[in-house]
Specification:
α1 packs across α2. It contains 5 helices and 9 strands; from the N terminus they run βββααβαβαββββα. About 20% of the residues lie in helices and about 25% in strands. It is globular. The strands form 3 sheets. The protein has a 4-stranded mixed beta sheet, covered by helices on one side. Strands 5-8-9 form a 3-stranded antiparallel beta sheet. Strands 6-7 form a two-stranded antiparallel ribbon. β6 and β7 form a beta hairpin. GO terms for molecular function: ubiquitin protein ligase activity; zinc ion binding. Its EC number is 2.3.2.27.
């Protein structure tokens, strides 16, 4: 993967995962193994231009295991909260979470509804995430502020704006849902000036008070 490339996320059903330790329950559940690879460019004083660029990258891989009910990951407000919690534990920066959150929820929804999974009580999922970063988070260092919903009164006071092509461009998207924001439509602006679909932002702030673009923190 090129260091300057985008974040990458892959989720797939992995029957090779050991689920023998999972306690049986009356409800179906996901057994999720996360593998997050943080990539950064090495400080290299060597001026040898023939050295391959990939050799100047170093990485740290963090892994984690989670269990969650199958009805709590497909797209809804509860799934946003659950996946955001997992990504926070895996130290994925909040401004990188929206795209990854949608991919995981979409995949969970798809495999939970596959006919061949209907009689399975445990669905094993492996999630691999690759993130180019400027620095590595130390072992005991927190990557984000505490996940907490925004204050409802603060949410209600957020400015409503009209999308103008001259200001945002014709291809401007809401980074929460990753869908285009239509020129002339109404949107909601954070105090940091970042703009999102109103419903998307309210759902996000109901889980996390941090702007998903710049980490501006609203009062809780």
């Amino acid at each position: 993967m090129d260091f300057a490339g985008d974040d990458y996320c892959d989720a797939h059903q992995d029957e090779s995962l050991d689920v023998s330790s999972v306690e049986p329950t009356s409800y179906d559940q996901f057994f999720i193994k996360f593998e997050v690879e943080f990539l950064r460019e090495q400080e290299d004083d060597d001026d040898d231009e023939e050295e391959l660029y990939v050799s100047r990258l170093e990485s740290i891989i963090k892994t984690g295991i989670f269990q969650e009910r199958c009805d709590r990951l497909p797209h809804n407000n509860l799934s946003w909260h659950n996946v955001t919690r997992m990504l926070h534990i895996m130290e994925v920066p909040v401004d990188r979470q929206p795209m990854i959150l949608h991919q995981i929820c979409n995949f969970a929804d798809r495999i939970a509804n596959e006919p061949y999974n209907r009689n399975k009580k445990i669905l094993p999922i492996k999630v691999y995430i690759s993130l180019p970063v400027n620095y590595f988070i130390e072992e005991n260092e927190s990557s984000d502020v505490t996940i907490r919903p925004a204050n409802e009164l603060v949410e209600q006071d957020l400015e409503k704006v009209k999308i103008e092509e001259s200001e945002l461009g014709s291809d401007f998207v809401c980074v929460i849902c990753m869908e285009k924001m239509e020129v002339g439509s109404e949107a909601t602006k954070m105090p940091c000036s970042h703009v999102y679909h109103g419903n998307c932002l309210m759902n996000w702030l109901g889980v996390n008070r941090v702007c998903p673009t710049c980490r501006f923190v609203l009062p809780s």
